TrEMBL record:
Stretches that traverse the bilayer: none
GO molecular function, one term: oxidoreductase activity
Pfam families for this protein: Nitroreductase (PF00881)
UniProt entry keywords in alphabetical sequence: Flavoprotein, FMN, Oxidoreductase
Coiled coil: none
Name of the featured protein: Nitroreductase family protein
Occurrences of domain Nitroreductase (ranges): 7-57, 66-148
């Protein structure tokens, strides 16, 4: 799949088959995530791969929009590691770029995923920090349920001419 095709056809997938996701696919997806640009090339991310069914099933109790994780065979917690920042505060942008790469890689490999936000919601940050025993300098940004899609989502252009400005607003 070409990059433009992946960008134009990727959509949030919230229904998954019960087929497992191989360790090789997870590694390939994480490798793509870690190729994202970052401020000063510091790559201030940490990833927690979750395939424990008990943990996955517990997550909707700490995040109101994670009910689909009960169907997903795996999820990836994306965190910013402030101890790895060269330019403080850019971890959110850096990790967001990593999440987008992760989502596009999953789609290109025939998997489905959905970005569920954690940061900046302090209650979610605290709950994920506690659930995953994160050190103080590691902040959870997003949780990505991942699996083989059990739904088809129509892809259509979202280009909006009224959102494009030339030279000034």
């Amino acid at each position: 799949m070409h990059a433009i095709e992946a960008i134009k056809t990727r959509r949030s997938i919230r229904k998954y088959t019960d087929a497992p996701v191989s360790e090789e696919l997870i590694r390939e997806i994480l490798e793509a995530a870690m190729l994202a640009p970052s401020a000063g090339n510091q790559q201030p991310w940490q990833f927690v791969v979750v395939d424990d069914r008990e943990i996955l099933d517990s997550l909707p109790s700490i995040h109101p929009y994670l009910s689909m994780v009960r169907q997903a065979p795996v999820g990836i917690l994306v965190c910013g590691d402030q101890s790895k920042e060269k330019y403080p505060g850019y971890w959110v942008q850096d990790c967001s770029a990593a999440v987008q790469n992760l989502l596009l890689a999953a789609h290109a490999l025939g998997l489905g995923a959905v970005w569920t936000g954690i940061h900046p919601m302090e209650d979610r940050v605290a709950a994920f920090r506690e659930r995953f025993n994160l050190p103080d300098e590691v902040i959870p940004l997003a949780f990505i349920p991942l699996g083989h899609p059990a739904q088809e989502v129509k892809s259509e252009s979202r280009y909006r001419e009224d959102r494009v400005h030339s030279n000034t607003y």
